[in-house]
Amino acid sequence: MAKAKILVVDDEDLIRWSFEKELSKLKYEVLTAESGEEAINKFKENPPDLVLLDVKLPGMDGLETLKEIHKLKGDTLAIMMTAAATVENAVKAMKMRSVVDYLCKPVDFEELKVVVENALEIYELRKEVKSLRDEKRKPYSFENIIANSEKMKQVFDTVSRVIQSKAGIILVQGESGTGKDLIAKTIHYRSERCDNPFMEINCAALPETLLESELFGYEKGAFTDAKFLKKGLFELADEGTVFLDEIGDMKPSLQAKLLKVIENRYFKRVGGANDIEVDIKIIAATNKDLKKLVESGEFRADLYYRLNVISIYIPPLRERREDIYPLIKHFLGEFNKNFKKNVKDISPDAKEILLNYNWPGNVRELKNVIERAIILSFEDIFDQSHLPMELLQDYKKEEEKIIDITLPPDGIDIDKIEEELVRQALSLAQGNQTVASRLLNLTRDSFRRRLKKYDLL
Q: What is the domain range of residue 435?
């Protein structure tokens, strides 16, 4: 293991010399600087793991020096040193997250040893926590999300802009299974709030009173079973994100309370009298048409307009078939690893079915189908025999939709009929090739080949 590196910053020669001598005995690599300016230059050349920093320095003082060091490396830890007369300044410095302790001069070297060891333990623990957080964030990087279709590329472009904008209220819409939760987590874990809590709740899964308690918390004695104080999700997520899934199922009375939180940034616990201020990003998601719910009186218009300032719509899988095969390959990799299998691909017949199936359950349904196929398959390629019977039956029904055409006695030019159908599909789709290909139950690539064949590009 590499030796820990410590930078000692003090304007007294004797302190720098004695600290270097004592810390070197403990097998630390020691650097010294007599001023804030010199400390910053040495930090740039050779960043240490820990800084021992005098509060009072000539020119740039210790706190100013530490602020400049943080601009270079924000997670640097520091121990402040101070004479008894300036302890107040050291205590003030302790409010900075990076300052883990302080030492009073003259320094006892046994105390120095303990304080430095503790600080370096904190440094290692924070490194581990950061590594775990980075690992947790990995699935939510754009590189790990499948988006070959233009529609999903547009979604990610919007998500990227939302992250940069630091918007506080976001509405994510789309059918069940399209990945609304994935978008919400991506926004959180790629934003400046990534190290703070991400709290999620399904508004459709709980009755109104229980949902209110979960969101707002409650005071001890607020109701019969409230035997102790409970913090709600809004409070627990302070400086982080709250994800309200299926917000279209929230009752109007609770919608009014949510609107107050959004507008005022404070709330009261159930049974409480005091306002609790919070700094939270709210991401709401729904598979319902909120505009229609507003028209029917089931959803508050004022809340809808407040949520709908920034809206992200995730298209269903049937409208972005270009993503199906890349998703299949992605899930093959994931489930091969989980189940210690080596299924490399799918057979042409299974591929044809999966590419043309309508996927009412969207990406979630596709993921479940691939998981099932991997579990059942013992070959390196799975075929349609590994697909669920209900999926095959639904696909067969679509396939059996036959147009009643009588063949003339003198025959027919099939190419002319195909060309006319392609033209009609383009006309109905107003030139949109993706929509036109769906009308003919073709993949977009197959449709484009026909466009080239009939000089319609």
A: 414-453
